[in-house]
Structures are given as C-alpha cells and as structure tokens.
Amino acid sequence: MSNSWVALEPGADPAERARTLRRAHAAFTEAGTVARPVRPVVADSWRRSARAGVGPDCTASVELSDGDLGAYRAEHPLARVMPLVRELMSTFALDGEHLVAVCDAHGRLLWVEGHPATRARAGRMNFVPGARWSESAVGTNAPGTAVAVDRAVQVFQAEHFTRRVQPWTCAAAPVHDPRTGRVLGAVDITGGDGLAHPHSLGFVQAVARAAESHLSLLTSDQPAEGTAELTALGRDEAQLHTGGRRIRLSRRHSEILVLLARHPEGLTGDELLCALYEDESVTPVTLRAELTRLRGLLGPELLASRPYRLTVPVESDVAVVERRLSAGAVTAAAAAYAGPLLPASQAPAVVRLRRRLADGLRTALIAHRDPDLLADWAHAPWGEDDLDVWRALAATRPSAAVRSRLTALESELTAPPAVAPRPDHHRPPRTATLRSRSRPGTPHSLP
C-alpha cells in the first residue's frame, strides 16, 4: 500500500478485507499476535489499547452531559471554528448518511452531527457528545487514534479494537493550536464502507488545516494591548503570546516569566534571586543581566522594574489548571494539564510549584475515581511509575493488563535496596556538608 494511513489500497475488495481483518482481530485478542494485512498504525494502536486494559467488548462511557457539556464546549478553543466545520462538512455528511464529530485532545466527543438515522444508530454505542473515545477508553478508532499519534488516519471496520464499532468506518485528522502547535482535538467523519477511500482522509485533513488557519486569523485579530498568554506546562521552554507575537523563551527566561505571572504585584531582585537559584554564590549582577536580556526580548513596555513586574495581565496554563481544580472541575483540569511545569527546571520556586500542581491534580484524579482520567495519567510519561494512581486505576478498572502493570510496579518500587559495595579502606571516607539556604529578609513561600 502506497500510503499506510489509508485503510484500503486502490482495487481492494472491501468485503474480503473485512473478513481478513476479523480473523486478524480474533487472533490478536486471543493470542496477542498480529498478522498481515493489518497496517502498522493499526497494529501499534491495538497494542496500546491492550496495554491500557481495553477489552474488545467494552463500551464508551459518557463523561459530560447537559450543563457540564455545554460549559466545557463553550470554553473549548474548537468552539470558535465549529461554524466553519459545519459549513465544510455538513452537506457531505447528510448526503452520504455520515456523521461529523469533533473531539478534544483527550478523545472526548464534543460535537456529533449529521444524518439523523445514522446518529440514532451511533448513539446505541455511545458515539455521542460527552463520551470518551480515546484509545485508552475504547481502543482503536479514528478520532481517538488521530489525537494519540497526531496524524490523520482512517480506520476500516474490524480495524476498530472494540467489536461494537467494527461495522463502522471513519477518518479523522488532528487540529493544532496555531500558536503553540499542541493538539486541540480532531475532526472526524464516521459512516459506512464508502469512507475507506483516500478522498475521505484528504477531506478531513483539509478541514483540519482550514480550522487551524481560521484559528490563526482569529488570534491575529486580537488587540495588542490584550492579555498575554503563557504556555509552560509539558515543555522546557515556555512560549509567550502577546500583541500578535509568539515568543519562545529560554529556560531561565521561562522560569522568570512563570514567577512574574504568578506575582502581578512584582518581585524584588532578592526575591527573584532566591526563587531562581539554588547556588548561593550567584550574584545579583547575574540576575540583572538575565533581566536585561529578557527586557530586550519582550520590549521595555512589557517588563518594568523596582519591583520587577509585567505590565500586562498574563494568563498562564498553570493558572487555568489551578482554577479548574479549585472549582472541582477535575475533568477540565486534566484536559488543560499538558505535562509537568518546565520539567527540566531546577529553580527552587518552580520545583515547588511543579510538585504542588502535579500533586494537587493527581490527588483529585484519585479521589474522582474516573478510570479514563486515571488511565490517561498512568499512561503518560509523568505517570507511568505513579504507584498510587495505578492502584486507583486497578480498583476502578481491574483488567489483566492493569493488574499486571501494578504488580510489576509494586515489585519494582518495594524491592529491598541492593547491597552497598564494601568500602575502599585505602581511601578516606567522603563526607557531605549540608548547608542551609537562607537570605535575610527573603520569603520562602514563593511562588
């Protein structure tokens, strides 16, 4: 096949391919083996689905409904491009008796529209707004797999991991934030075998690119004097979007902006010095040099001094997660959490904030007991060794894969330490000097 992301090569018999895929799916679910002609993208997705504990007979769960769904959709960035998506896709969906669906970055369906009879049939498998269709929830499917691999993809009949979905064929493409490049969600077309064609894959890709272009235009129309936006979760170098500019910051400048965004009243040089540097030998001259370079990057109109402060309001993704947690909106907080705050930073105040944010969210997830949210955290790089989360996941979704991973993790983390090597008697013992870090008059509660 010339394009492995397309479900059927030209001239292939859909009925014969469907029979072959059903046999391959049965072999995988029974013995864990993948045979040809299963495409690599599908085989990899099946393996991820199995590792997440998804069973072939599972059903999508509806997480958001009524007012919660409406509030979440209204706040989501893709709400701004839905009129465009409807304009481009609705006629195609109605004429072909298909569905148009838009999901968020976690595979949660936000809008499902199209042919009424097709919507009714899809509703019987919970392909409805508010339902979770991520790979970790229901296995291989076009919208869930598209956001998982960040690629446009088709899924044909028995390529779906869950048997209830195997009569369907779908194609989906991810939509990215034009400012940060992050996946916001995906647009999907779902229906019959006729969608297993290169044209449907190209169609959803074109719609996704049009949505990104429209978002970019909407962003560029924002006035320069508006609120700046700081993106720092899940990345070592933050990005600041202000006045139509997207500024990529160095690691040190990222740390400074994170701290100043949390303290609109400003911070003194001594407060910043203590918050940024573990090494007490760093002098105020070093910090002033960093701030001078940052002012040159941002412009003197954005960074003031005495105390150091930002002159425009800054909305950060850290603050979004914190607000949602404070409001008890755990699902929305998890959706906004793209990863640890500046994960490579060793600045003392950033380290404290990173730990506090992650601990607050994981504690809320454990208390919330939503298996899909727990699975998302457990299978993320920052959660793969989180024993408490894996225990909570095993309690809510006790699949064989989850129990196996939990057993291995408990064995690994509770194993006795290795026997220390015998000391070298020809070398004097090394001693460590503990030094307390304190500067007179400097608060230790930052950030």
TrEMBL record:
Residues 244-310 form the OmpR/PhoB-type domain. Residues 412-447 are annotated as: Disordered. Pfam families: GAF. SUPFAM superfamilies: C-terminal effector domain of the bipartite response regulators. Keywords: DNA-binding, Transcription, Transcription regulation. InterPro entries: GAF (IPR003018), GAF-like_dom_sf (IPR029016), OmpR/PhoB-type_DNA-bd (IPR001867), Sig_transdc_resp-reg_C-effctor (IPR016032), WH-like_DNA-bd_sf (IPR036388). It comes from the Bacteria. This is GAF domain-containing protein. The lineage of its organism: Bacteria, Bacillati, Actinomycetota, Actinomycetes, Kitasatosporales.
